């Protein structure tokens, strides 16, 4: 796992956007996995800026979102489809037909979830999956106890998640109790994962994810089993990490390597 600790959420957004933009430039038909929540908002703002000012081209990009609330249609102001349109898709040149957000009102969820997995597979799989993290360490809506091999399915939300998400709804009673979500196993199949976290409220989840044991009680910890994970977090989210200084040292050396200050590595050799 690569851990990049940035000074503040703005720097997290800029660094994360560099990862996404590099992929989109290198591979204009890439398949992105996208997330909702407050954390990736800065990333989307930065990508919109890059689209407007630097011509970052999303016209052939395909996207799959992690999850959606059950019962909310695409025009509901709190649906994740609506969130993605408002905060990202409406401001870039992505073809909306290439964007996929799970359907929160599918008639047959079992069949729909199988179909969602199949669509991802038919596009060749997800190349870069953007992830936020819940305060209990969940990714997408894979609540504690979710199988680490799980696939797209319905999930009951915990009281903690319902409480966390209540801020977006007029009353706590309106917060959906069920979601359709990619599974941990689905997420682990993406070629690269980009985990973002900001703020003190995420410090415990980040410590458990990066330095704790791999456990279904903290579904993000399954990322330790993935070969290519980059965590971009701010100082506050990093404050409980025991090896924080080591991660900073790795990045310092990485920067020196990239600028040629440590000599060149033989082709194909990765230092980290
Ligand atoms: C929800 C979403 C997750 C997200 C989490 C944290 O549970 N399903 O994908 O990571 O909220 O959201 P925020 O970034 O607003 O803290």
List keywords for this structure.
10 strands, alpha/beta, globular, 7-stranded parallel beta sheet, 272 residues, 35% helix, binds 2-amino-2-deoxy-6-O-phosphono-alpha-D-glucopyranose
Question: Can you give me a brief rundown of this structure?
Answer:
With 272 residues, the protein is of the alpha/beta class. Helices cover 35% and strands 15% of the residues. The strands form two sheets. A seven-stranded parallel β-sheet has the order 1-10-9-6-2-3-5. Strands 4-8-7 form a three-stranded antiparallel β-sheet.
Walk me through this protein's architecture:
The chain is globular. 35% of the residues lie in helices and 15% in strands. By secondary structure, it is of the alpha/beta class. Strands 1-10-9-6-2-3-5 form a seven-stranded parallel β-sheet. Strands 4-8-7 form a three-stranded antiparallel β-sheet. It has nine helices and ten strands. Helix 1 packs across helix 2 (41-54). The longest helix has 18 residues, at 9-26. The termini are close together. 2-amino-2-deoxy-6-O-phosphono-alpha-D-glucopyranose binds next to loops. Residues 35-39, 66-67, 132-134, 140-141, 161 line the site of 2-amino-2-deoxy-6-O-phosphono-alpha-D-glucopyranose.
